[in-house]
Amino acid sequence: MGACRQRVRASLSHTEPDRIVVDLGATTSSGISGIAYDRLKTHLGMHSGETRIFDVIQQLARVEDELLETFGVDVASLGRQLNQESNNWYPVTLAQGTKVQWPIHFRPLVRADGSRDALDSRGKAIGRMPAQGAFFDQVYFPYVDGYPDDFRDLADAMSQVPWGKFPRMPWQSAGESSFWKRLRAGAMELSAKSGRALVASVGCNMLEWGMFLRRMDQFLMDLHTEPHEVERFLEALAEHHMGTLAKTVEAVGDIADVFRFGDDLGTVQ
Fold it and tell me: How far is residue 25 from each of residues 20, 34, 89, 124, measured CA to CA in Å?
């Protein structure tokens, strides 16, 4: 087993590793914005490569191999081998003149004031980034007026939320028949080539999706005023998540070193 994997597994087992595990960009929570990434490369004198945005909502950059080596990074996103071809990306200029590349499936509408609207499949604005903004804010909440009588439309409602409509690369292709085979092949190649511990971010967010669908203020009040409705919603959401989790485990469960689950309790002041 490589030193990176040993280090990560020792840390997760609560035993002292040879040094602290280093991560940069293996997850969205440990990512770096495209603007900051471009400045970091300039500061380090790195002028090759491209600043590619793999999380279009938060505008997070895919950290290139040269920089991972520079900082001695121990972990990598399991899907980073996919979508590396140049024809999967197109050039965009962000605030402060930062030049990046966006994935070709993400084509926001540019408004007269320079802001950009992320549209769902119906052409409705569901996210917006101001002209000088650094990320997209959610502007549409499917359940803002109340929970439905049943949750047969849950997947459709989730697709009307920026995080559901535009998942981070490469998960936007999860509905394609070849995706899981390609994900496995890419993960095996990355594991053999890099020696880093591989992180599979499977989401399965519960409370956070309540905020995405219902809006944060409404959902936090629901926890107190409508607990039965919240329970009904969370049961349906858990069933939805289990389907995706089962596919991920089947495809890469024997390759991933870490399965990462995420949620947001809305406690940031």
Answer: 16, 11, 19, 31
